[in-house]
Design brief:
elongated; about 75% helix; single chain; mainly alpha
Amino acid sequence: MVIEDFGARVASVWAGLRPTTRNLVEHALQSSGKTALMATPTRANLPYDARADLELSRLLSALDERAADSGSTLSTERADQLKLMAETCAAVLQNQTQSAEVYAQLVQRAHARHDFARIDALADVLTTRFAPAEICELARNAHTVARALAQETLAQLPTHTLITLLADPIDTDIARDALERQALDYGSEEARRIVSMLYQADATDEEM
């Protein structure tokens, strides 16, 4: 496929990619068919590249915008190639991202397409790829589905992990909500004791 055929913005973003990032997409396009793109690719044991995430995020946005352009003059063949490239880019990001912002972009994209299998796959990687503080960041995200996935994941974390988050002024409210869910929805005695202590501390502060 000729990138320039997809429009000026896609071509500009593509030209700005580092060779290593461009190779990720090219390799995925060569090795993945439509069926493979629907599944979560196997992660390579490579160091996480945050810059590649940002570059691929911009590329995915440009591809999706072009695909949604109602005034597009792309032929059917070029339109199919554009969608394939966008799905490939999304699959690469799903396979590697550790960015809360990019993760939310992927969830929002899958939700808009009613791709519930992709949403389930994204939910599965939260605990294995994201630190608790990053999941807290997602729990504050503006997108409803991304926020709900993060909140559900936090409620299933070990109670002692949530307790450590209480010390962070940014994450304390999110951690407290998760502890309350553990106590009420999952019947955790440890979480119930912590929540009770927190309420007692609140009452003491109000009296003072």
